[in-house]
Amino acid sequence: MNVKPRIFIGSSAESKEFAEVVSRYLGRKYECVVWSNCFFDLNATTYETLARKAIIFDYAVYIGGKDDFVIRKQDGSTKYAPRDNVYLEFGLYAGILSPARSFFLVHKECRIATDLLGVTVALFHDKKSIQACCKQVDRSIERECRKNRIQLLPSTSLAMGYYTNFLCQIKNAVLDRKDNFIDGWSYDEKKKNLRIEVVLPDDVYVDWQSWADRYAKHNGLCRVSFNGSTRTMGILMDKDTFDATGVLRVMDVPQTLRASFAAVDLVLGQDYLGEDEVAQLAKENEVRNFCATLKNLIKKDAYLSEIVEISMVNAHF
């Protein structure tokens, strides 16, 4: 499963050479896809493919080159301008990914559309100067990678719910020192020997529920009832380790992500059985964003940051 942020790079055919420079520069750190690299689907319109595949990307970079020569009606002045469809596609991706994750690099001899006046864009005039623009984009992406935004698909919201309704439930129950809060087993919080492992299979096409059962059996885990701070939940526990050492290893496979997978299928209008590359990439994006959001939430909690580990494991052990 890819762990690098994925970037879509768009331009007109006339400015494709600049798009390729951007791809080579940013491709050293990120997974880059240029529009000209077999991106568009057969038997589908350009707009349809762009809209359908937007959910597989984390960021978008559009190149506004000297594509057309335009005459201004009011005063008859002439100037170069980016192709009109580049503006349309940039707006599409800014709407889906958010303006903070969509970047417009414009040739400095171009007239900028009035809708973008006041918006800071990166200016270039040749292949060397566009690399300086790439540095700006890279810095912006590095800052943005430390954030998680509410997006079209629900992984950010699901991670927030999982953090509140599962991890914090365990934390609050332990800190409240409830006796026998796991199927009759007592736990002494003073020993600080609780470990919570959030485990995710590295294949979005396996059935996560049956995989969790197989993972538990393979690792000698037992499913027990856990009395959380407000409700009772089922968790996986390493009973043998607890009996032998007193270390309480709690494991969970976040089934809530199955809602993300269902959302992807709905957004893509999936009406067939089988695997689809766009659906797979979108679901992998959801898993990656879920983990990133969860890590950001956990690191702000002094207690959970010491005891929670998130790991991706081989789905086909």
From TrEMBL:
<dbReference type="InterPro" id="IPR046876">
    <property type="entry name" value="Prok_STING"/>
</dbReference>
<dbReference type="InterPro" id="IPR019302">
    <property type="entry name" value="CAP12/PCTIR_TIR_dom"/>
</dbReference>
<keyword id="KW-0051">Antiviral defense</keyword>
<feature type="domain" description="CD-NTase-associated protein 12/Pycsar effector protein TIR">
    <location>
        <begin position="6"/>
        <end position="124"/>
    </location>
</feature>
<comment type="similarity">
    <text>In the C-terminal section; belongs to the bacterial STING family.</text>
</comment>
<keyword id="KW-0378">Hydrolase</keyword>
<dbReference type="Pfam" id="PF10137">
    <property type="entry name" value="CAP12-PCTIR_TIR"/>
</dbReference>
<feature type="domain" description="Prokaryotic STING">
    <location>
        <begin position="154"/>
        <end position="295"/>
    </location>
</feature>
<keyword id="KW-0547">Nucleotide-binding</keyword>
<dbReference type="GO" id="GO:0000166">
    <property type="term" value="F:nucleotide binding"/>
</dbReference>
<dbReference type="GO" id="GO:0050135">
    <property type="term" value="F:NADP+ nucleosidase activity"/>
</dbReference>
<dbReference type="GO" id="GO:0003953">
    <property type="term" value="F:NAD+ nucleosidase activity"/>
</dbReference>
<dbReference type="GO" id="GO:0051607">
    <property type="term" value="P:defense response to virus"/>
</dbReference>
<protein>
    <recommendedName>
        <fullName>CD-NTase-associated protein 12</fullName>
        <ecNumber>3.2.2.5</ecNumber>
    </recommendedName>
</protein>
<dbReference type="Pfam" id="PF20300">
    <property type="entry name" value="prok_STING"/>
</dbReference>
